[in-house]
Design goal:
- The protein is α+β, with helices and mostly antiparallel strands.
- The protein folds into 3 domains: 63 residues; 138 residues, Immunoglobulins (Immunoglobulin-like, Sandwich), CATH 2.60.40.10; 107 residues, Collagen-binding surface protein Cna, B-type domain (Immunoglobulin-like, Sandwich), CATH 2.60.40.
- The protein contains 3 helices and 18 strands.
- The strands form 5 sheets. Strands 2, 3, 4, 6 and 9 form a 5-stranded antiparallel sheet that branches.
- A hairpin with a 2-residue loop joins β7 and β8.
- α1 packs antiparallel against α3.
- This is Cna B-type domain-containing protein.
- Keywords: Membrane, Signal, Transmembrane, Transmembrane helix.
- InterPro entries: Collagen-bd_Cna-like_B-typ_dom, Ig-like_fold.
Length: 339
C-alpha cells in the first residue's frame, strides 16, 4: 500500500512538473516571436528616389521617427526634444519646422547624395520609418536678376501606406521659383506671425521668443537675432534691411508646455502655429526648451517607452507562478498524508 501510495504521489507530482515545464517552454516560444518579427522587419529594406530638375543637386536625408508597435510614429533620439505633431495632415508644417531646427542646432544628415545624369537621387537600404528630405536651391540668371528655385522640404513614410505599403518610393519634387535682385546692395525683409490653435486665450503664455536664422552661401546657419512676440505687438515682428544674398528663416526658441509648433511660409512671411495638445501629455512638465540639448533640453525625463519592451508575457509568467504554488501545495499535502 505504501508503495502504491508513493507511486501515486510521484505520478501526480510528475504531471504537475510536466505542466509547469510546458508552460515555461510555451511562454518562451511566444516571447521569441516578436524578436523574430523585429529581426525580419529590420532585414526588409526600402528606398526613396527623388526626381529633380537638374544634375548635381545635393539632397540631405534625415531619419526623424520610427514606427511604434501601437501605431503612429515616435521621434528618433536626434529629434525627440522638438515639440511637433507627427499626424499626417500636419507633415508639411512639421517638415519645415524640423528642417529649420536641424539647421539651427547643427544636426547632421544621415545621408547626403547628389542627383545623377538622369536627374534622380536614390537613397537605398533604408529601414522602415519617417524620413525628412531637404534639397539644394537652384540659382539662375533671368534678365539681370537672380532666379532662385526652392525645393519643398518633405516628410516621407517608408513603407508608403497610400501606395499599398510599397518599400520603394519615388517622388518628383516640384521647385517653387523666387526672383531677387542680384546686387550687393539688395535687401529683403522677414515678417513673423504667431498663430494659436485649439486653445483658450487664458491658456497661452504671456510671450514667446523667436530666433531669426541666417544661412550663408556655404550652408552655415547662425542665430542672427531673437525677438519677443506678445499680445502687445499682435504676436508679430518684422526684420527690415536684411541681405538678400543669404537665406533667412525663423524658429520658435521655446515651445510652450502643452503645445506643438508648425511652420509655414508665404513669400517673406513666416507663420508659426502653436496647437494645443492633450493635457495628459504635459501634466508633469513645466518649462520645456525645444531644440536644446543637455539637462534642460526638451522632455528627456518623459521619453517614450523603448521599442522592444514586452509586457504581454506577464500573464503567462503569472500562470507559471500559480502552477508552482499548486505543485508546492500538492507536495506539502502529500508529505502530511505520508506522516
Amino acid at each position: 500500500m505504501k508503495y502504491q501510495y508513493r507511486q501515486s504521489c510521484y505520478s501526480r507530482i510528475k504531471r504537475m512538473i510536466c505542466m509547469l515545464a510546458f508552460a515555461a517552454v510555451f511562454s518562451g516560444m511566444l516571447m521569441n516571436t516578436p524578436v523574430l518579427a523585429a529581426v525580419e522587419a529590420e532585414q526588409t529594406k526600402g528606398s526613396i528616389s527623388l526626381g529633380c530638375p537638374a544634375e548635381g543637386l545635393e539632397f540631405s536625408l534625415y531619419r526623424v521617427a520610427d514606427y511604434k508597435d501601437t501605431g503612429g510614429f515616435a521621434l528618433t533620439e536626434k529629434f525627440q526634444n522638438y515639440r511637433v505633431s507627427l499626424e499626417s495632415d500636419e507633415w508639411r508644417g512639421t517638415a519645415r519646422t524640423l528642417a529649420d531646427y536641424a539647421e539651427r542646432d547643427g544636426i547632421q544628415a544621415d545621408a547626403v547624395l547628389k542627383s545623377g545624369s538622369d536627374k534622380t537621387v536614390c537613397f537605398e537600404n533604408l529601414s522602415n520609418g519617417l524620413y525628412l528630405v531637404k534639397g539644394q536651391e537652384i540659382e539662375a540668371q533671368d534678365n539681370g536678376k537672380a532666379k532662385i528655385s526652392v525645393p519643398p522640404v518633405s516628410l516621407i513614410a517608408l513603407p508608403d501606406a497610400s501606395q499599398k505599403d510599397t518599400l520603394h518610393i519615388r517622388v518628383n519634387l516640384k521647385y517653387d521659383e523666387e526672383k531677387m535682385d542680384n546686387t550687393e546692395a539688395s535687401q529683403t525683409k522677414i515678417h513673423v506671425l504667431k498663430v494659436w490653435k485649439q486653445d483658450q486665450v487664458k491658456e497661452r503664455p504671456a510671450s514667446v521668443q523667436v530666433d531669426l536664422l541666417r544661412t550663408d552661401q556655404n550652408g552655415t546657419t547662425t542665430v542672427a537675432d531673437s525677438q519677443i512676440l506678445k499680445k502687445e505687438n499682435q504676436w508679430s515682428y518684422t526684420w527690415e534691411n536684411l541681405s538678400s544674398q543669404v537665406s533667412w528663416s525663423v524658429v520658435e526658441t521655446e515651445v510652450p508646455s502643452g503645445y506643438t509648433v508648425s511652420t509655414s511660409r508665404e513669400g517673406n512671411t513666416v507663420v508659426l502655429t502653436n496647437t494645443k495638445t492633450a493635457d495628459s501629455e504635459d501634466k508633469s512638465e513645466s518649462t520645456d526648451k525645444t531644440g536644446t540639448s543637455g539637462e534642460n533640453g526638451g522632455n528627456s525625463s518623459q521619453k517614450l517607452p523603448q521599442t522592444g519592451q514586452l509586457w504581454w508575457p506577464v500573464p503567462l509568467l503569472m500562470l507559471a507562478g500559480v502552477i508552482c504554488l499548486l505543485v508546492g501545495k500538492q507536495l506539502r499535502k502529500s508529505m502530511e498524508e505520508k506522516k
